[in-house]
Amino acid sequence: MLTYQHSGGRLGDVSQPRWLSEPEQRLWRAWRAMYQRLESTLDRDLARDSGLSGADYALLVPLSEAPDQRVRARELRNGVGWDRSRLAHHLRRMEQRGLLVREDCPTDARGTIIRLTDEGRRAIEDAAPGHVAAVRWNFIDLLTEEEVTVLTSVAKRVNDRLNEADNA
Question: For burial by CB atoms within 10 Å, which of 19, 93, 121, 140 has the most?
Fold first, then answer.
């Protein structure tokens, strides 16, 4: 028996694969194309309108929403799903641009606290209105209330499965 081992668990016998049906294949290909084009379009518009990359925005949002605009680096990394190296490099670039600062954690000598600067706060506040308008125009406003509910449920189930796999 040929099995496939995912990082989060065994997927089972792949010597007899359950191929996708035509409708499932259309869904999967349409979903991938939509996701890739949507992310590319939103990132391009964000960079054009605000000078922030999608990665910058992904880090600035949780910092701007956190108490005292401070987040432990480990929590930030887990929240965006990046590896340690990617986060460290991107934080360094954002720090050089004055958007955030890294500080020693007062309760853990090995930890780092990421703090949003006034410049970072201005950047996210300036970028957010245009970004949310682009998200609405390119995605949210195309959906009915029922579709929003269904897609939210689907996303939650998929994320729950992936979280289970990551924690297995």
Answer: 121
What pLDDT was estimated at residue 109? 72
**β-strand partners of 104:** 112
Q: Does domain 52-168 have CATH number 1.10.10.10?
A: yes
Q: Residue 122, SS3? A: helix
Phi, psi for residue 53 in degrees, rounded to 5:
-85, 165
The alpha helices in 51-144, defined as continuous H runs, are 54-65, 73-80, 84-96, 118-138
Q: Is 108 exposed, middle or buried (0-12, 13-18, 19+ CB in 10 A)?
A: exposed
Residue entry with tokens 């006034």: 118
% the chain with pLDDT above 90: 77
Going from N- to C-terminal start, the domains of the chain cover: 52-168
> What does the pLDDT read at residue 3?
52
